[in-house]
Amino acid sequence: MKFWRKLCFWFRRRRFDEELAEEMRFHRQLRARRLVSDGMEPGLAEREAARQFGDDLRHREASGDIWIARWLQDGLQDLRFTARTMSKRPAFAIVAIATLGLGIGGTTAVYSAVHAVLLAPLPYRDAGRVIVIWDRHRRDRESQTVATFDDYEAYRQNSKLLDRVTAAALVHPIVGYKGVRRQYQEGMLSPWAFDLLGTPPLFGRTQFLAGSDCSVIVSHRFWTSTLGADYGAIGQTLDLDGEVCTVQAVMPKEFRFYPVRADMWRFIHPSGGKRPRYAAIFARLRPGVTLQQAKAELQAIHAGLHANDDHGRDRTAEADDAQRELTYVVSSTLRPTLIAMFWAVASLLFVACLNVAGMSMARIVERHREFVVRAALGCGRGRLVRQAFAEGAFLCMSGLVLGVLLAAGAVQLIGRKSLTEFPDGVSLSVNAAVLSFAMIAGAVAALLTALAPALFAIRTEICFPSGIAGHGLGGSTRNLRTSQIMIGGQIAACLVVLAGAALLVDSVFHLETDALGFSTRNVAATGLDLSHYRDPARRNARHLELVEKLRALPGVSTAAIASSFPPSREAGDSVLERRGRAMGTPAYDVLDTTVGAGYFELLLTPLLKGRLFDARDQLSGKPVAIVNLALAQEYFPGEDPLGQEVRVVSLSGPSPWLTIAGVVGDWKHMEWDARWLVSPMVFRPLAQDPSADGAIAVRTLGNPAGLARAISAQIRSAESSMPSEPVETLDSRLEKMRAYPRFRAFIVSFFALATLLIAAVGLHGTLAEFVSRRVPEFGLRRAIGARTAHLFWLVIRQGGLPVVGGIAAGAVAAPALARIVRSLLVGFRLWNPTSLVWPVVLLVTVAAIAIAFPARRAANVDPMAALREE
Amino acid sequence: MREEIPYGLLDLLILRTLARAKQMHGFEIAEEIRALSEDVLHVEEGSLYPALQRLLVNGSVSSEWGRTEENHRARYYRLTASGRRHLERELARYKRVSAAVGGVLEPA
């Protein structure tokens, strides 16, 4: 109501002022009349009434201020004035708004992804109080692993500071539904898991139902893809590894929990039943308890439990915020992508602001005369500064509107084309948080844009400005200096972004061209499950039959079974022990793979020394291993690895002692920061451990994609109980692994080039302004004998100086920034001295072009024309 | 003897004055307050008009252009229903406070 009255006032304010004036005039008249009736002379009475009444204008303003605060009225007036002056020079306004819009839009779009993936709280009740508990090596903070189930029981029974301690273990059941069998990811949870999280299901019940034998809670993805988004899904039955389970609930789309890509969850029955050996542990901090206190308590429980064993000596408990941990797990590749992108767009916005500030400066210098006249007429400094800020605010508000529209468009595009794989349940939107971010970005942009012009306005002197007499003869060196500093800042920011982009492009180049040590061409692989063969000898026989059947397929040249096929996304996490050698600090980096006959031939990996696995390596034979060159060099420097005995210690325990029979060439795996890295590897014969089979692959003569159906059918005809895993070519796996780095290199390069373009346009604009203001001076110089080259170099110097300075500043800032980023994100490399070479070359070339045009114009000034202009 | 009107009381005086009449213009309000206070309280124009705007903004009074007895155009103010409630509240509060102040200054 009040607001409404004020709004009405705003639209009627001119009439309001007139009416108030009339009202006060009448008041004065009546007062004068009373003075007359009191016996005063009429003329005198009128003057006395006016004197008593006081300043009419001030009273009116004071009355107006009641309706709308003065600063708001002035601000709105400033904005109106700005809009009017802008509409006179639409080209400037359009370029400035487009530049800012691009900057704000890019930053907002990337922030919307950063927010959705990394910052938005997980959909739990009071998510900040949910913690995750790991087991880690005492000395190595990064070596977090899941804890044993016994540890979980100890924490659950003994912790006083934690509530609802919950285990979550990852299992891979084969799920049969309507005759289709496939392997899925399932989380096994403590019965109170959903009480801990407090996330209500989409429908169904998430409580543990004591009566039922097996019931599962399915993810939204599983519900939509496998169950056909059927609202009658509750009560339907699935076959989980031969056990009949009922669907109990469907979780909402945004629900995320451990395991990150889980398709369904099942409760660990409190009394008996299957228990996992290892589990990630979650819990809720009791009210008033801090994470540090909880960690101390957990470590004490851990120490008490393992007081007398090796585990207790080496390892301890670790607890962390579930939000940080789960988003980290979700986005080990997405996270650096987002951060790199955000960093690039923030620089773009910075450059855009400086650029618009430069343009505004040039305009304000042009309007120097107007400023001086306004100051002379009594306009306060504060008001002039406010005018500068009003212009900045006008441009940034328009830029903000444009930017938000651009961001909304970009978000739509990213969502539709799914250029990147976002984790389940994460959807991008321009929501309230993103909008507030955009507004903050806009406000910062307004400040940055208006700062230099405002400083200029403060220095407005009430004097006879040189501008009134004509064009200043180099009178504004201070302004030139300001412009140069701003150009230097743009060039520096530009170099930093270009350096980052160059590094990413370089890494993509390596990803595409590096030799990996194995050949993925014409190889297709699929999952294998023969777990129902309990007898190792029978399983071995089955392996041989399967490989024979596939080899018999037309177009197939060879086939092999192994625990896995490359390319691998992860480094190994096992430890290698040499017989008879004490272990130093264990390095969890050995990749342990079990391979069947024909494996190395299939992948075209060369044997360097010794022999490959053959008929000697049977179940009853001596356990053997093949290692790769990297492992041989790391663990047997200067020794012959052949015949040495080693064993592999993984989470599930040590392997038997293995005699090294051969050395093969190195392989690379992809590190999580998108680099190929050589992994130390141990290969074991499948014949000695047939239960390790996990995948089967074939090498075909032509494109394997066309054979996928035949391969699938052949496997199923041999083994009807086999789940229908998709047949994938190794090339397509490689392609998927390269997609992310390529995407982020593309985006960052795009922003870097946009930044370069904006900076170049700014440089050119400032110099062109500089030259056109000094055309008379140049004409004069030429008239008295200055040479063309001299004028040309004068402009080159003015433009080149900030470019050189900016490059120097950028070269100093880039490694410093990279160091900060690396301290925040372990192992995230953004810096490499050689990555500066190309950016500097590119920057110098573009800057040279931007400078050359105004320099040419200065050099070609016609003295007569210039003097006539004067 | 002329006295400044204590801060915050002017709104109350204006409301009370308007409550007694059907409608009044600015000069009449000032005169009425001066007359009733036996020439002690003078309402300055510099505070009268802002005070009237304040009352208009919060809806305690409404204004309308009318004609005086001499047929001169003048803006007349009148109390609204919510202004009347506001006045009662303020009056009660004022009485409570002034009784309390009196009690402190001259204990019985």
Defining traits:
heterodimer; A: 870 residues; alpha+beta; 4 domains; 53% helix; 16% strand; B: 108 residues; Arc Repressor Mutant, subunit A; 3-stranded antiparallel beta sheet; 56% helix
Can you walk through the features of this model?
The complex is a heterodimer of chains A (870) and B (108). By secondary structure, chain A is an alpha+beta fold. Chain A has four domains: 2-68, no CATH class; 127-330, no CATH class; 334-513 and 737-869, no CATH class; 530-722, no CATH class. In chain A, 53% of the residues lie in helices and 16% in strands. In chain A, the strands form four sheets. In chain A, strands 1, 2, 3, 4, 5, 6, 7, 8, 9, 10, 11, 12, 13 and 14 form a 14-stranded mixed β-sheet that branches. Chain A is globular and about 130 Å long. With 108 residues, chain B is of the alpha+beta class. Chain B has four helices and three strands. Chain B has helices at 9-20, 26-36, 45-57, 81-105, and strands at residues 24-25, 61-67, 73-79. Chain B has a three-stranded antiparallel β-sheet. In chain B, a hairpin with a 5-residue loop joins strand 2 and strand 3. In chain B, helix 1 (9-20) packs across helix 2. At the A-B interface, helix 1, helix 2 and helix 4 of A face helix 2, helix 3 and strand 3 of B.
